[in-house]
Amino acid sequence: MAQLMLIKATKDVIGIFEDTHIFSSTELDKFDLVQIKGTREEIEKQTEDLVGLKEAWKSKTIEWTLESPEKKLLWTDGKNLKEVVERTKYPVSYVNDNFVNNIAKSSVNATVIIAEVKNG
Fold first, then answer.
1. Residue 53 falls within a domain, yes or no?
2. Does some domain include residue 110?
3. Which regions of the chain are under pLDDT 50?
């Protein structure tokens, strides 16, 4: 089992811990704690896969240059890679026993940069 530390009002995941972790009284007062099946590593991988943050670069030229390529941070909706324009402090929340991609909630993060990415 793993434990999630959540902000009470928003249910944003701010930490993932093993079930053996002992929280302070301050942490217990300020945050919600939820036990979830899986190890800390498995849950971290699950949340990383949900958001799928990746960096992409676009070269301005194919010639040698001293200019840096354009770089963008992207997230996946499971099919396409989209630009992260507005990054949330906590990319995942846990609501009704499900992880939610907070980056996907923002309409400004909807521009597709690379279409139809094949997984695997």
1. yes
2. yes
3. 120
